[in-house]
Specification:
By secondary structure, the protein is mainly α. The chain has a single domain, classed as MFS general substrate transporter like domains (Growth Hormone, Chain: A). It is 86% helix and 0% strand. It contains 14 helices and no strands. The protein has helices at 2-16, 18-38, 42-54, 58-68, 71-99, 104-125, 132-141, 147-156, 160-189, 193-222, 224-244, 248-274, 282-296, 299-331. The longest helix has 33 residues, at 299-331. It is globular and about 85 Å long.
Length: 332
């Protein structure tokens, strides 16, 4: 749903403004949480998630930041938005876990209440970020092209297409790792569900520190182009050491390295793209970036699960062959 609706909402925000789209998106989230709270069957629960997928305000929020910042501070400000998202991933599960002691519906009511407070905040305190003349220009000049044509055109833009490809591959990798990490912690260290929650809190804290306090200085000192190459390298090093060496200290260091690389890219890619996009197309192109990122999350967990199963079978086969060889030696 996010793959489909991110560029649509982004393009609409270029025409009518960011604020109305943010309000509509948050209102849609409220409806989805109400359905989640009242769900008494799997189909209604699934419907609540489908409606939640319509509320794809991330690209619109990034476009809002692009509207109100200059190029020098854009990466830093987008990093702070990423840090806020990271904080949500830490405090959200904690609040949900506390409320779940009163029943799962309490968690849904809590999420609904928070979304409603967010709606009130946007309505009363968030001003529109684009001028009327700018939105009118977007309406007048925006070409009438299909959804997939938008993606094809974006991929052909100099440097932008490369940034979108990097985003797709990295998000695919990270979504696979989100399946692999829990299975590794159980297999290597016999973690419980509580211990596993601490692992994801640890990842969230690292990304908050990086995106909230470090990334702006890194962009100024190193530059976005070098960080686009450095981020995947950090992720590769983190992932490869995590899976090969079953040591808790190395595992935590590997997680930090991987989270650092992913946090860099989650900040730098939208900033990099927005700086190479006209003001009246910010929402549309950042929506496409979110769309590309969203579709990569579909095969990622499946690939992660398949890799874990294949690795387990390979280890079992090697172990069996090793035992057969030992038995043969003893027989001789």
């Amino acid at each position: 749903m996010q793959f489909i609706f991110s560029p649509i909402l982004g393009k609409i925000s270029d025409k009518v403004g960011r604020r109305p789209v943010l309000l509509l998106s948050i209102l849609t989230s409220i409806v989805s949480f109400i359905l989640f709270t009242l769900a008494n069957s799997f189909l209604i629960l699934l419907l609540s998630r489908i409606i939640a997928g319509l509320a794809t305000e991330a690209a619109v929020a990034q476009a809002y930041i692009a509207d109100i910042t200059d190029e020098k501070e854009r990466g830093e400000k987008m990093g702070k938005v990423g840090a806020a998202v990271g904080a949500g991933f830490i405090f959200g599960p904690a609040i949900g876990g506390f409320l779940s002691t009163y029943g799962f519906s309490a968690t849904g009511f809590g999420a609904t209440a928070l979304a409603f407070l967010n709606l009130l905040f946007v309505f009363f305190f968030l001003p529109e970020s684009i001028h009327k003349t700018q939105s009118e220009k977007s309406v007048d000049t925006a070409p009438k092209i299909s959804y997939f044509s938008q993606i094809r055109i974006a991929m052909k833009r100099p440097l932008v297409g490369s940034a979108l490809a990097i985003s797709f591959i990295i998000t695919l990798s990270f979504s696979a790792i989100q399946v692999i990490v829990p299975l590794l912690t159980i297999s290597f260290f016999d973690f419980s569900s509580v211990g596993l929650s601490y692992v994801f809190i640890y990842i969230g804290i690292i990304q908050i520190v990086l995106q909230g306090f470090i990334i702006g200085r890194l962009i100024k000192k190193v530059g976005e182009e070098k960080l686009l190459a450095f981020g995947p390298l950090l992720m590769f090093l983190g992932i490869i050491t995590m899976t090969l060496i079953p040591n808790i200290g190395i595992f935590l260091f590997s997680l930090a390295t991987m989270a650092f690389g992913n946090g860099i890219l989650q900040t730098v890619v939208p900033s990099f793209i927005s700086k190479r996009t006209p003001a009246n197309e910010q929402g549309s192109l950042l929506g496409i970036a979110q769309s590309v990122s969203s579709i990569s999350r579909v095969p990622g967990p499946i690939i992660g699960g398949f890799v874990v199963e294949a690795t387990g079978l390979a280890r079992a086969l090697l172990s069996h062959l090793f035992l057969d060889a030992e038995h043969s030696k003893h027989a001789l």
